[in-house]
Design a protein that fits this description.
Elements: H1 2-23, H2 53-57, H3 72-91, H4 95-117, H5 122-138, H6 145-154, H7 160-190, H8 197-240, H9 244-252, H10 258-267, H11 273-298
Helix pairs in contact: 1-3, 1-4, 3-4, 4-5, 4-11, 5-7, 5-8, 6-7, 7-8, 8-10, 8-11, 9-10
Length: 300
């Protein structure tokens, strides 16, 4: 019964997260007006707005005008429900669960928003950063960096809230600075922007929740996932002949061979780094203890 309740709660929260994902980039209130069809503006009835099942009942179309409804909505709701259950199974009914449920909700909003519109809104990042500091005072990150530095400087062990807050601040500083440094090096080497400041702000928020080690693992896993997926997509676009006519026109103007131009055009395709950072952050939360165990073995 508890698992069923947590799952239903996740579905309901996921429905609200869909509202945030859809409205926040456009600067629209997440409270009013009520949900409605984007084409005919007909308000959605409450029984058509039931998470996941409403979309299935309507067969993915508006009841009034028949415009297709994106499958993003039920997928986000279902993913949120499953992640909520995973969080409960991993951490039980504890303060830790509350922290990671809140963090999971923030990450879902940022991950999907960046995937949809290539944006990581400040209205999510900065309140999330403050929330990370608050939660870490009660549930410190599984880190220890702050305790080591504090003991080295003051010759005593900090209290649990102080340690958690310091670990959160160190994680935020480390995560945001490391990603900013990577972006600066990329711009100098490639001569163009590789990521926006939204990614840096997102890592400040992630670091406030996860601490220094968690932030490092998030960046490492996120960039690895982004690189692997990015290379795969570029190869697929090249094989599929993406922008082939554009390459032919450029070739006729003497800019190079068609195949070389096709590869150059495909390689310019950019993926949202924030999406992969979000996926990596969730991996750290739910598989972090195992990763930290292997991490510690590397240095012992």
């Amino acid at each position: 019964m508890v698992i069923a309740f947590i799952f239903v709660l996740g579905l309901v929260i996921g429905s609200f997260l869909n509202v945030c994902i859809l409205r926040i980039p456009g600067g629209i209130s997440i409270v009013a007006p009520a949900s409605r069809c984007p084409r005919c503006q007909t308000p959605i009835r409450w029984y058509d707005n039931v998470p996941v099942f409403g979309w299935l009942w309507l067969r993915g179309k508006c009841r009034t005008c028949g415009v297709p409804i994106s499958p993003m909505y039920p997928l986000v709701e279902l993913a949120t429900g499953l992640l909520f259950v995973a969080c409960y199974l991993e951490f039980g009914l504890t303060q830790t669960t509350v922290k990671w449920l809140f963090f999971t909700s923030l990450i879902i909003v940022l991950t999907i928003t960046d995937l949809r519109v290539r944006m990581l809104p400040d209205v999510v990042n900065w309140p999330g950063f403050v929330a990370g500091l608050f939660f870490s005072a009660f549930v410190p990150p599984n880190d220890g960096s702050a305790a080591y530095l504090y003991a080295a400087l003051f010759r005593r062990t900090p209290s649990r809230p102080v340690q958690g807050l310091l670990d959160a601040l160190l994680g935020a500083l480390f995560g945001s600075f490391l990603l900013w440094a990577v972006a600066a090096v990329y711009k100098r080497v490639r001569g163009r922007e590789g990521m926006g400041m939204g990614d840096v702000k997102m890592m400040a928020m992630v670091g406030a929740f996860l601490g220094t080690r968690g932030a490092f693992l998030t960046i490492m896993l996120g960039t690895l996932l982004g690189t692997l997926v990015g290379i795969t997509i570029i190869v697929i676009l090249y094989i599929a002949g993406w922008r082939h006519k554009l390459a032919e026109r450029a070739s006729r103007r003497g800019l190079g061979s068609v195949n070389a131009l096709r590869w150059a055009i495909a390689s310019l395709y950019q993926l949202p780094l924030g999406t992969f950072l979000g996926i990596a952050a969730l991996l750290v939360v739910y598989f972090g203890p195992t990763m930290f165990l292997h991490w510690s073995r590397l240095f012992t």
